[in-house]
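Q: You know discrete backbone vocabularies at least as well as I do. I have my own habits and do not want them to colour yours. No explanation is needed for now; the record alone will do.
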Amino acid sequence: MKFLLGFIRLDKQVEALAEKLARRFESARPGADGATALWRDLAFCLAQLDHGDKTAKRLSDTFSCYAPALADAQVRASFETVA
């Protein structure tokens, strides 16, 4: 994924993908089978993108989607690299 995400350079593409990845956190609710693994994968992908101001705004708008996932240390560490 790191290799593939490296090809996404346009700001609009990064913004759209970041929002879609953030909204995907909602599909795996806490306690569901494989939820933690999915959260970690999504957070890793988000951390690989080149973020700008608009992307940060979109991520802050979708905070409620991924807020429960921040309880996991690996997910939180990936989000710390985004900031």
